[in-house]
Amino acid sequence: MKIVNTISFKFSNRKISTFNRSKPYILSFAGNLFTIILHLMPSLLFSQSDVTIEGKITDEQAEPIIGATVRLSGQNIGTISNIEGYYRLVLKRPGVYKINVSSIGFETKTFFTNVKSGDFIREDIILIPSVSSLNEVIVRGKSEKLTLEAGSLSLEAIELGSLKVESSDVAAILNRTAGVNIRQSAGLGSPVRININGLQGKAITFFRDDTPTDYLGNGFNIALLPANSLERIDVYKGVLPISLGADALGGALNFVSKRNRENTIELSHEVASYQTHRSSANVHLKDEQNHFIELLSFFNYSENNYPVDVQIRDPETRNLRDITADRFHDTFLSAFGEIKWGVRNGKWAEEFSVSGGFSLIRDDIQHSLQMLQAFGRARQQEDGLFGSVKYMESSKDHRLNVSVFGALGRHTTMTRDTALQVFNWLGEVERKQGFTRGEVNNGNISLAEFTVTELAGRATVNYRLADDHQFIFNNVITRKRRKGNDPVGPRVTSDQLDPLTVPASLLTNISGLEWKSFWLNRNLLFRTGIKNYYFKNSGIDFGDVFISTFDPIKNSGNLFGANAAIKYIVNPFLLIKGSYEYATRIPEEDEIYGDGLFLQSNPELTPERSHNLNIGIRIDKTFSSHQLGYLELNAFARQQRNLIFVQSDAFSVRNVNGAEANAYGAELDLYYDITDRLTFNGNVTFQDIRLATASQFTQEYLVGERIPDIPYFFFNTGLRYRSKELWEDTFLTGFIYQNYVEEYFLFFRGSPTALPPVIPSRNIVRLGVTTTIKNWSITTESNNVFDAKVFENYREQRPGRTWHLKVNYQMNL
Q1: Residue 95 forms beta bridges with which residues?
Q2: pTM to 2 decimal places
Q3: How many CA within 13 A on the CB side of residue 56?
Q4: Which residues touch 77 (CB under 8 Å, ≥6 apart)?
Q5: What's the confidence (pLDDT) of residue 30?
Q6: Helix, strand, or coil here: 496?
Q7: Phi, psi of 395 (to 5 degrees)
Q8: Do 284 and 263 meet the contact criterion of CB atoms below 8 Å apart?
Q9: Do 771 and 732 form a contact (C-beta atoms < 8 A)?
Q10: How many CB atoms neighbour CB 722 within 10 A?
C-alpha cells in the first residue's frame, strides 16, 4: 500500500512549490519532516516581529555584483552582497525607510520602502555602470572570476580574454597556475603530462563545457589548443561537482567555450622557431531568431629541429662521445575542425545544437623514452571523426533545468615502424640491423592499425526547490571499443591469431546526486553528494613479445563515493572553505590495453581510490577605484589506495597497480593591481607525496620515500603592463613570466644506496610585447629568454630559446 501526498508549503512567507509524490509511508514521513524543517528555519533565525528585505544585486548583463553596500540612509545600519550578489537586511521595527545601494564602478541607486511588522520583502537591484568608471570591463570580469573561485570547491578560473593574443597555448597558460605543473617531452606535438596537487597523467580528467573530451580524439589537446578558442579554463583541485560526472581522483580541467553575443570572425597565425606555424579560425554567426553557426578550427606544424645534447658512437673506437646535434626526424602536424549549428532561447529549447568535426595527427617518432637511441623512420598518425547533439530546457519558473548530451567519436591510429637501419643523432645510418627490424618496440616491426569507437551520453537534471536549496542529478555513460590488426606483429603461437583483432572494450557508468544549500543570510554554502561508479572491460593481454595462448580477460566492478564541501563568507573580503571526497578513478582504455607503441597493455588494472581533503582561505580587497587584489592559501591532504604506477624501461612503459601513498601540500596565490595599468601575480606550490606501503615492484626500504617523477616545489611570477592610448585605438602591452621547478628524482632508487637519475631544476623566463591597433594585434615573444637547458619527463630535452611572432585579427560583423 502506498500513500500519495500533495504538499504545498511556504518558505519565508513565499510560495515555493507544489508537487505530488508516491512513496512508502516512512519516506513520506521523512519528506514531510524535511518540509517542516525548511518551513521553520526562518523562524528559528529571525524574530516574528523583524522586518526582512532581501534580493539580488546585478549589473545590466545580469552578472552578480559582489560586495555592494546596502545601507539605510542616515543610519549606521546596513549589509553587503555576497559572492552571488544576494543581500539580506533585517530591521527591528516597521516604518518607511530610504535605502542606498552602491558599488565601485556603478552609480548609486536609492529606493524607498514602507514595511510592516513581520514583512518579508524581495527587492532585486540592477546597478548601472558609472560614466566615470575607469574600466567597466575589469569590474565585471573580476566579478565573474571571483564568483567561480569563491565557491565552496577548490577551483581556479583562468580567464583567457587578455591572453588570447599571446603565442602561449593552453598548456603554457596552465603552467602559470598555482598547484599546476605541465611537462612536455620535447617540442610541439610531443606528449604532455599535467600535474595538479600531486595528481598527474590519467588521474586528471578533461572536460569541455562539462562534457568529457575523449570523443574529440588526441587532436583536442592542451598543448595544441589555442587560447583564443576558449572563454576560460576552470581548474578543479579537489572535489569535483556532481554535474561533471567524473571519476577523477581530485583534479580536472573544464574548457569553457566562448558564448559570443555578436557575429564575429577571429583569425590568427603564428610563426616561431624551428619551422613552426600555428593558425586558428573561429567564426560565430547568428540571426534574429537566435539560430547560430559556430566554427572552431586550428592547425599546428613544426619540424622541431632544435639542438640537443646527445651521444654518438665513434666509428673507429666504438666509444660514445658527447655532441650537440639537431633533431632530424621530429616533424609534427595536426589539424582540428568543428562546426556547430543550433538555436538558443528558442520556443521549444533553451539550447539545441548539433555538431560534427574531424581531427588528424601526423607525428614522426624521434627517439626512445629516455633519448637513448635516435629513430629515423618510425611514424604514427591518427585520423578521427566525431559528432554530438545537445538539448537543454528549463521550466517556466526556471526551477527545473534538464540537459541531455550525446556524442560519437571514431579515431584510427596507425603505427609505421619497419626500418632496416639503426640511425645515430646526426641522421646517419650507423649500421644495418641483423635479424630484427623496426626501431620502437625493441626490434619488433609494426604496421599496427586500430580504431577506437566511443559512445558517450550525459543527462543532468537540476531542480531548485527554493532560492536556497538545489538538487542536481547527473549520469554519464561511455562505451569504448577498440579493434585493429598488425600484419607483421606478434601472434598467438597456438593458432597464429593477431591479438589486435580481438576487440577490447570498456564500459563505464557514473551517476551522482548532489544537494546544494545556502544558510545564514546566504553567507554559508553547503553541498554534499554521492556517486556510483560502474565499470566493465574485456580484452587480451598482448604486452609480451611472444604470446603462447589466447586468454581473454574480463573485469568489472561497482563502487561508491561521497563528497561534501562548505564555504563561509566572513565578510565581503574574507572567506574560508573546505571540502572532502572519497573518490574513485577507473583506468582508461589505453592504460588497460596500451597504445600499440610505447605503452604496453595490462588488462588486470583496477581502479584507484583516494580520500581527499582541501581547505582554503581567500582575501579579496579593493584598495581604490581601480586597484584590486586577492590572496589565497589552499592546503590539501590525500590518501591514495591501489595507486597506478608507471613501470618503465628504456623502450616502453606499463601501468601497474601499486601500494598506498600519502600526499600533503599547500599553495599560495597572489594577484595585485599595482596601478590601473600594471598588474602582478605570483604563486608558490609545495607538495609532498610519499610511499606509504610497499608493493610487488617496490621494496620495504622505499616506504616513506617521496614518489618519483612528480615535481614537489615550483613557483611562478608575472607582470603585465598596458599603456595609455597612444593614438586612436592603439595600445601597447608588455608582459614577463617566470616559471621555476625544483629538481626531482625520475625513478625509485634501485637499491638502498643507489640514487636514481635526477630531472634538473628549471628556470624559464618568457618575455613579450603586444601592439593592438583597432581589430589587429601583433605579438612578439621570446620563450626561455636566457636559453636555459630544460629536461622533462624521462630526461627528454626541451627546446632552448625560441622566438614567436603572432598576428591576431577580430572583426564584429
Answers
A1: 115
A2: 0.80
A3: 12
A4: 71, 89, 91
A5: 41
A6: coil
A7: -70, 165
A8: yes
A9: yes
A10: 16
| Burial state string for 657-696 with b = 16 or more CB within 10 A and e = fewer than 16 | bbbbbbbbbbbbbbbbbeebeebebbbbbbbebebbeebe
CA-to-CA separations, 424 to 190, 430, 445, 658, in angstroms, rounded: 20, 6, 19, 37
Closest CA to 181 of 192, 169, 194, 191: 194
Calculate the CA dihedral of residues 410, 411, 412, 416 and round it to 10 degrees: 180
**CA atoms of 262 and 282, how far apart (whole Å):** 13
Which residues are CB-contacts of 252 (< 8 A; sequence separation ≥ 6)?
Answer: 204, 205, 206, 207, 235, 236, 240, 244, 246
**Ramachandran region, residue 22 (left: φ > 0; alpha: ψ -120 to 50; beta: rest):** beta
How far apart (Å, rounded) are the C-alpha atoms in residues 58 and 65? Answer: 5
Backbone angles phi, psi at 216, to 5 degrees: -80, -15
Q: What span, in angstroms and rounded, lies between the C-alpha atoms of 587 and 607?
A: 6
Asked if 564 contacts 527 with a C-beta cutoff of 8 angstroms, the reply is: yes
d(CA 174, CA 158): 8
Could you report the per-residue pLDDT of 527-564, keeping only the tens digit for each? 999 999 999 988 776 655 445 456 677 888 999 999 99
**pLDDT per residue over 221-280, tens digit each?**
899 999 888 888 999 988 888 888 778 887 889 998 887 667 899 999 999 999 999 999
| Selection from 414, 332, 331, 374 nearest residue 596 by Cα | 414
Consecutive H or E run containing 31: helix 25-45
Phi, psi of 66 (to 5 degrees): -90, 140
Of 289, 296, 279, 280, the residue nearest 355 (C-alpha) = 296
Q: For 56-71, b where at least 16 C-beta lie within 10 A, e where not — what string? A: bbbbeeeebbbbbbbb
231, with CB counted inside 10 A (0-12, 13-18, 19+), is middle
For the segment 667-695, the average pLDDT, to the nearest whole number, is 90
Contact 111, 72 (CB under 8 A): no
Q: Report pLDDT for 228.
A: 85
Three-state secondary structure call for residue 102: strand
Cell 573544464: give the residue: 254
| Contacts for 63 with CB less than 8 Å, ≥ 6 apart | 140, 143, 144
User: Residues in the chain, how many?
Assistant: 813
Helix (H) / strand (E) element for 592: namely helix 589-593
Q: What grid cell was written down for 561?
A: 563515493
Q: Which residues contact 29 (CB under 8 A, 6 or more apart)?
A: none
Terminal Cα-to-Cα distance of the chain (whole angstroms): 64
CB 274 within 8 A of CB 802: yes
- C-beta separation of 109 from 87 below 8 A: no
Cα-trace Rg, the chain: 29
* Average pLDDT over every residue of 614-630: 73
Q: Quick one: cell of 27?
A: 519516506
